[in-house]
Write a structure and sequence with these properties.
By secondary structure, the chain is an alpha+beta fold. It has helices at residues 26-29, 103-117, 192-203, 211-230, 234-240, 282-285, 293-296, 386-399, 474-483; strands at residues 12-18, 42-47, 51-53, 58-60, 67-73, 76-82, 89-96, 119-123, 129-133, 136-146, 149-158, 166-176, 179-188, 206-208, 249-255, 266-279, 299-311, 314-324, 330-341, 347-356, 359-366, 372-374, 403-411, 416-425, 434-439, 447-451, 457-461, 468-471. It folds into two domains: 12-209, Protein Transport Mog1p, Chain A (3-Layer(aba) Sandwich); 214-483, no CATH class. A hairpin with a 7-residue loop joins strand 11 (149-158) and strand 12.
Length: 489
């Protein structure tokens, strides 16, 4: 499983002035007795673009300068948000709710857990013993509302092993009968007034989509995706797949300079891609696990992607080969990634997968670890092979039907099958081009690609300012990298 990308807000909204005790009702505001723990009035700028996790229907606007990332472990989605200037962090966790759970009962459990973590046994006269905790709960408000639903919010101060006390803030929310969401602020006692203001202001801008709306949007998108895949013909594939190959097309990944000059841009990597008619044995030719002779002669479509990416620590070289039968019922793939650091032996990671109808097996291995086998479950129609997933952008553009498409596909970064979204539209400023906005999973930031009328890639903007992919002639790429003394061997 590869790490997830982070969300770094880049666009600033107008300043929003937040008053102290932003969400507290007047009766509680007047009852405050610890001014050092009260949210301090501050001016907060929020990002114009919301941070979203569509898999759980979460949408929240973050203060400018925040960074967020998420992962999923055992069906529990976790989001971590670093507040500006590292004044604190917010953890967001969503999990399945039990029928008898309420926001109050969950809040009680959290308080009990925090109290027990800093508790000790006290021996009293008469040899009786009691438990004493150093945790202090304050400002608990159970009559607040978030997105139209009741919440339980409170703060807990606990001593640190050294330095100032650690303060936790909790907002427990149950957006649906099946889901519990907990927002956790972690900061220190000196930073609490400002961190609390940022936290409460952020909570005030949280929204959850209606589960019925999410299900409807997914279902409609999957129907559109299934319809377009069912209509693909041999002629459609012939338009995007070469009769023989590989015939490589080269792309350059870079951060364009403000001057617009190639010499001033920052090179991040390059890749070559090819799609052609071939056999399953191409996986062996691409450096993967040898294909059994019994199936190696299967004819179909082959997609190959080989890339080099530059990092501050070294280079990452990746080579992938993906095969599918013309009817899409069978597929296989191999991926090999080598992380090279100066003076060190390359660390190699491999992934080998195969599928027949809805039966899939994937074997992954990394440097110094034993191979791991998984068998993802394909529970729904709408699944597309790895090879078809690479061909989808050009196929959709050539079909030329604007829409919000959804497909299930295996995602190596997430280590599971995820719901992919592709939105095809005509940009108002480029009526003769096509814009395709792609999310490789519901919780990944989108990448935006621009294509010509005939389906040729113009450029792809990666999320979070991670660079731009552009087609490039090989000779020009070589000259460019050599002029900047960048490694190509």
């Amino acid at each position: 499983m590869l790490p997830t990308a982070t969300h770094r807000p880049a666009v600033r909204a107008a300043a929003v002035v937040i008053a102290a005790l932003f969400l507290l009702p007047p009766s509680l505001a007047s009852a405050q007795t610890q001014p050092d723990r009260t949210a301090r009035p501050v001016s907060i700028e929020f990002d114009d673009t919301p941070f979203r996790r569509d898999s759980i229907g979460l949408e929240m606007y973050l203060p400018v300068g925040s960074e967020a990332a998420s992962n999923e472990i055992g069906g529990v989605t976790n989001v971590r948000i670093n507040l500006p200037e590292m004044i604190g962090l917010i953890n967001v966790q969503t999990a399945r709710a039990e029928p008898d759970q309420t926001v109050i009962s969950i809040g009680d459990d959290i308080i009990r857990m925090r109290e027990e973590s800093v508790s000790s046994i006290v021996r009293n006269p008469g040899d009786t013993r009691t438990t004493r905790t150093q945790a202090a709960t304050f400002d608990r408000a159970s009559n607040l509302v978030l997105d139209g639903k009741p919440v339980d919010r409170f703060y807990i101060s606990t001593p640190a092993y050294s330095g100032p006390a650690i303060v936790y803030g909790y907002t427990v929310f149950r957006p649906t009968s099946e889901r519990i969401v907990t927002f956790e602020l972690i900061t220190t006692e000196p930073n609490l007034p400002i961190a609390r203001a940022l936290y409460e202001a952020t909570m005030a801008r949280v929204a959850f989509a209606d589960p019925a709306d999410i299900a409807l949007r997914r279902g409609t998108g999957l129907n559109l995706g299934a319809a377009v895949v069912s209509q693909l013909t041999a002629a459609d594939f012939a338009a995007v797949v070469a009769p023989t190959g590989p015939n490589w097309e080269w792309h350059r990944l870079h951060v364009p300079a403000s001057t617009g000059a190639d010499a001033d841009s920052t090179e991040l990597g390059y890749r070559r891609v090819a799609a052609y008619k071939g056999t399953r044995s191409e996986l062996s030719n691409a450096g993967g696990t040898r294909t059994p002779d019994a199936v190696g002669g299967q004819a179909g479509y082959v997609v190959r992607v080989e890339s080099r990416t530059l990092t501050p620590e070294g280079t990452i070289d990746s080579a992938g080969a993906f095969f599918m039968t013309p009817d899409g019922r069978e597929e296989a793939w191999t991926i090999r990634m080598a992380v090279r650091r100066d003076g060190a032996k390359p660390a190699v990671w491999t992934e080998t997968g195969a599928r027949s109808d809805r039966s899939m097996t994937i074997v992954t291995a990394g440097a110094g670890t034993a191979p791991t086998e998984t068998r993802p479950v394909i529970e729904s129609d709408g699944y597309v092979s790895r090879a078809l997933a690479f061909l989808l952008p050009e196929l959709l553009v050539r079909k030329g039907i604007p829409g919000d498409y959804r497909f299930y596909a295996y995602n190596s970064r997430a280590g599971k099958i995820t719901l992919r979204a592709d939105t095809l539209e005509r940009p108002a400023d480029r009526p003769n081009a096509w814009r395709l906005t792609t999310r490789l999973s519901e919780d990944e930031a989108p990448q935006v690609s621009l294509f010509t009328e005939s389906g040729d890639l113009i450029h792809t903007d990666l999320p979070n300012d991670a660079g731009v992919w552009e087609p490039i002639d090989l000779d020009r790429l070589v000259r460019l990298w050599k002029s900047k003394n960048l490694p190509m061997d």
